[in-house]
Amino acid sequence: MNTQTLATAEQRAAARQLVELIGGNWATQAIGVAARLGLADHVASGVTQVDALARACACDASALHRLLRGLAALGVLRLDDDDDGGRCSLTPTGELLRRDAVLGLNAHAQWWSQQAWAVWSDLMGSVRTGQSTRQRERGQKGFDHLDADAESAHLFHRSMVELTRLVAVDLARSPALPDAGVVIDLGGGHGELLAEVLRARPGLRGVLFDLDHAVDGAQAHLREAGVAERVTVTSGDFFAALPRPVDVVLLKSVLHDWNDGDAVRILQRARDALAPDGRVLVIERLMPDRVEDLPAHRTTTRSDLNMLVGLGGRERTAEDYDALLSSAGLSRRRTLAAAAAFSVIEAVAQAPARRQGPPCIKV
Ligand SMILES: C[S@@+](CC[C@H](N)C(=O)[O-])C[C@H]1O[C@@H](n2cnc3c(N)ncnc32)[C@H](O)[C@@H]1O
């Protein structure tokens, strides 16, 4: 029997949809290569004709033309045939691949198509073992992989600046932030969020705290943002003692990098650094209790798997965060929704008597 004839129109549509999902990696590589070649910068500078672009990018003209066609199909640029063999222009999406675009994502496209791609290639190993690819293959934990690779470290921190810039203005307006005092951004990277917070609240001073490979870039970034004179940049390890006392500890996209035991240790250090009445602000995407076929849920579950393969971390539900906070001697005061499915969880130190109870999460 010809089974084809038994398939319904709905099944055929589902199969075609699955073919598109299976082939989704081509967009990552096409956009990543465009970013690495600096295609958008060349086009923006007036090099729009395909042969001239190929010379500017040191590429084979015919192969580059094929890449440009793919990018046109993805809506990244427009490709018009002309007597010279094709000319392209940038769409609003393509403009974001320019290195100097206001909300540009050039570094993120490069990071995702190279370093992230490499660790995703053995998702199977991570699903079988629960360990990150870097842990399994090289015995590397946390951000060890960036210690001896300055180029990757720079790309990673630029990528984080680009992603955080998409939400920083909104986060800086959060009512969970006070107007005066000292705020420390733990694992603050190059300081994109801290800069926005200080710009929005002139009465605050800041401490940018991160590993060696972040701090030089942070100094430069904070200078460019015009807030450097209100920030102390400190290189250190947030598993050890922190500068204290501080009124606010910011932890954006940090706890999701770590397993539960490490996340509790970071929260304990944060709690110990607080001034009386100080608060910890955990800024993360919350894993919904029930995941559905929704764009926001795709973003959160993609990030969850990215944490698994890259760092051995995870995205967590609101309940999971309550358990971490409680184990670290902190209590959640409120949770505020923010842009792009982020939440701001505001936590304060528990009264000393409550801290003596058994921890919910063993560290
Ligand atoms: C995912 S990034 C988040 C950066 C920034 N908070 C943001 O959202 O843009 C995690 C940051 O934690 C920093 N980090 C990792 N381990 C650290 C440690 N032991 N001590 C201090 N910072 C650390 C990394 O260097 C990196 O900048």
TrEMBL record:
Signal peptide: none annotated. The keyword rRNA-binding does not apply. Residues 20-97 form the O-methyltransferase dimerisation domain. Keywords: Methyltransferase, S-adenosyl-L-methionine, Transferase. One of its GO terms (biological process) is methylation. The keyword Cell division does not apply. It holds the Pfam family Methyltransf_2. Coiled coil: none annotated. GO terms for molecular function: O-methyltransferase activity; protein dimerization activity. Residues 120-330 form the O-methyltransferase C-terminal domain. InterPro entries: COMT-like, COMT_C, COMT_dimerisation, SAM-dependent_MTases_sf, WH-like_DNA-bd_sf, WH_DNA-bd_sf. The active site is at H256. PANTHER family: O-METHYLTRANSFERASE CICE, PUTATIVE (AFU_ORTHOLOGUE AFUA_4G14580)-RELATED. This is O-methyltransferase family 2.
